[in-house]
Amino acid sequence: MDRIRVHGGRDLSGSVRVSGSKNSSLPILAATILCDGPVVLRNVPELKDIETMCRILRQLGVENHRQADGSLYLEVVDRKPVRAAYDLVRQMRASFVVMGPLWARRGRAQVSYPGGCVLGHRPVDLHVKGLEAIGADIHFEEGYVHVVGPVRGGTVFLGGNYGSTVLGTANVLMAAALGQGTTILEGAAMEPEIEDLCHFLNRCGAQVSGIGGHCLVIEGVERLQGCEHEIIPDRIEAATYLTGALMTNSPISVDAVAPQHMLAVLDKLQAAGAQFEVGKDFVRNLPTEHGRIRPVDVTTLPYPGFPTDLQAQFMALMTRADGVAVITEKVYPERFMHASELARLGAAIRREGSSAIIQGTHELSGAPVMASDLRASASLVLAGLVAGGHTDVRRVYHIDRGYERIEQKLQRLGAEIERISEG
Ligand code: EPU
């Protein structure tokens, strides 16, 4: 199993180009099941999770390959398969999002019920509620969710105890797009990735309005054709590099980004002392004379709030602050596995329910650590950049799920980072 070794304390500078959004690509890839005719997607990152989704789609009769210019070509060649098997869904929860499109285009779907995950209990009740509200007849059998019946449209409120659901919104939206009747999706997730999916669907001939808001109105259509579409930049990857820029007090420009998708994050990083030059598609960190980091409390929330997918990286930042910061998780109250690994590097972090209290320190020292999930591994790499000595991050397959060529990108900024293969 590979690990990533980071030698801390190097001066970083230069620019890093952000990849297309993983979490935007995944539901859009699933949406190709709905389309008659080829789809060409640009700016799809080369990541493990994308490979997994492409494999699932092949099993579901959607041929796909990378073209010479890097774009992804997809075309449905077989409409018979309706089953997404446990073996694939267990590798990536996001594959549950093929359910809506399979049902809407092929009349039925059988999708393995996703298991638990390190972020805690992750139910799919809202997906089920939403699909039932627009006509689905759903039952559970031998670990699979079975969906049949015509898509009829309807009105449904998709908010849950932790806000709305991103992939639940995607599932219902995709099914409603190719059905009969009108669907009113109240309490819809407002994440930019959902907006991107709406634009993709409309480009294919769907009629979705209210895009970007919490109420989506979908007039079902009889047919969706293929289209060409460019995936939005990955706001979490961008923010991860900006957090690293602030931690190392480095003149780093993060390019090919959509700053308007990162307002909550930019605001908190600025509160922590960052000075940014913000352009149309770049954010540049301007180092400060003292390089100090102020403690800032953060609460994760659904968009446009501070993203849970940046909580671990922000915690790494706060381990270096001049004082105490409180980070509260309101999306995944159990998502704190990285706290004990950061502690191995010398961070002082205490858990109080769904909050973590971090006492900043100026001394982190490198150690072997274990990544528990994708964002946790990013936080450990960031901490490694400022820790004395070297930090070995194990289980880096997590990072390959969501950060395209992270060690090359950091090397280009001047970091001393390498991947060590252990067969
Ligand atoms: N929830 C329910 N019932 C449901 C669905 C969700 O109670 O039926 C709860 C969840 O347990 C959680 C909250 O609602 O407490 C929000 O979960 P959501 O459904 O929005 O998460 P998701 O759609 O499964 C996506 C991202 C995650 C990201 C979350 C929150 C993708 C592929 N995944 O997951 O990304 O953390 O939204 O923003 O888009 C990551 O990229 O590292 C990652 C985990």
Written description of the protein model:
It contains 14 helices and 26 strands. The chain has helices at residues 22-31, 48-59, 86-89, 99-106, 125-133, 166-177, 192-203, 235-248, 263-271, 311-318, 337-344, 374-386, 397-402, 406-412, and strands spanning 3-7, 14-17, 35-36, 39-42, 62-66, 72-76, 83-84, 109-112, 137-141, 144-148, 154-157, 182-186, 207-209, 215-219, 224-225, 228-230, 252-255, 276-278, 282-285, 298-299, 324-328, 348-352, 355-359, 368-370, 390-394, 416-420. By secondary structure, the protein is α/β, with parallel strands linked by helices. Strands 24-25-1-26 form a four-stranded mixed β-sheet, covered by helices on one side. It has a four-stranded mixed β-sheet with strand order 2-17-19-18. A four-stranded mixed β-sheet has the order 5-6-4-16. Helix 1 packs parallel to helix 2 (48-59) and helix 6 (166-177) packs parallel to helix 7. It has two domains: 3-19 and 233-420, UDP-n-acetylglucosamine1-carboxyvinyl-transferase, Chain; 22-230, Enolpyruvate transferase domain (UDP-n-acetylglucosamine1-carboxyvinyl-transferase, Chain, Alpha-beta prism), CATH 3.65.10.
